[in-house]
Design a protein that fits this description.
- The protein is mostly helical.
- Helices cover 54% and strands 8% of the residues.
- The chain has helices at residues 31-45, 60-81, 96-124, 132-137, 142-167; strands at residues 11-17, 21-27.
- Strands 1-2 form a two-stranded antiparallel sheet.
Length: 180
């Protein structure tokens, strides 16, 4: 017998947006918002951008590309579900649309606007005899990039937590119940 998913009727939202402040309020999701939340949740928890990027590990370019892809994915979800996920009657409340666009425009966009160009300029100066990863790791701005990326990552993790709660999903980011 299938157990029905436990869907919250009301969710308290509090997400810290780097360099801006926080988005907080109450969200009373409907079915369309729950489905949209699940779709974006899956995208967030499967990205390099929500995994801590340790010093000397990973690629800054891959992290940047992962963040960029969230724009087209989120736009697609918003278009597919339409204005139902951003109802005008909920102007002062949280909705999927408000949450998604706030994260894009106030967490991701400022980070990418700053770092995409700077990283691209550094990449363009790579000597032919140096690997792309070695060159990236030698960048004098890499540590600051990683510090700011960590702040964006935290906002994405908080967003994913809220979306997972709304969707009635397990915590897939922190799940470690694998047995051999």
């Amino acid at each position: 017998m299938k157990m029905p998913l436990k869907m919250p009727q009301r969710v308290q939202v509090k997400i810290t947006i780097p360099f801006v402040g926080e988005i907080s309020g109450e969200w009373e999701p409907d079915d369309a918002e729950r489905k949209a939340a699940w779709e974006l949740y899956v995208e967030l928890v499967t990205r390099i951008a929500v995994v801590p990027l340790q010093p000397g590990q990973g690629s800054l370019r891959d992290a940047t590309n992962s963040l960029y892809s969230l724009f087209s994915i989120t736009r697609d979800i918003l278009r597919r579900y339409g204005p139902q996920v951003a109802p005008a009657s909920k102007h002062s409340q949280i909705s999927f649309g408000v949450l998604a666009v706030t994260v894009l425009n106030h967490a991701l966009r400022p980070f990418l606007a700053r770092w995409h160009i700077q990283l691209g300029t550094w990449e363009a100066a790579r000597p032919a005899d140096r690997s792309a990863l070695d060159h990236e790791q030698a960048w004098d701005q890499a540590e600051q990039f990683r510090e700011e990326l960590e702040k964006v990552r935290q906002a994405l993790v908080e967003t994913a937590d809220v979306l997972g709660t709304v969707a009635g999903a397990a915590d897939l980011m922190r799940s470690t119940s694998i047995s051999g």
